[in-house]
Amino acid sequence: MYIPPNSPGTPQPSFKNQLFRLRYVLVVVVILIGLFYLGAIRHQIDILNPFTNDGSAHVLPIVTPDPDYAMPAKESTRLDILILGIRGADDPDATDGGPLLTDSIQIFSYDKVTKKSSLISIPRDLFVTIHDQKKDKINSAYEYGLSHSSNGLQFIKDKFSQITGVYIDQVVVFDFSSFKGIVDALDGIDITLAVPFNEPKQWGFGFSLLAGANHLNGQEALYYSRSRYSSTDFDRSRRQQQIIFAIKDKLLQLNFLADPIKSFSILTLIRSDIKTDIGVWNFNELFDLANQVKFDQIKKNVISTDNLVVESKDNGAYILIPKGGTSAGIKQLFQENLK
Question: Is the whole-model pTM more than 0.85?
Answer without folding.
Answer: no
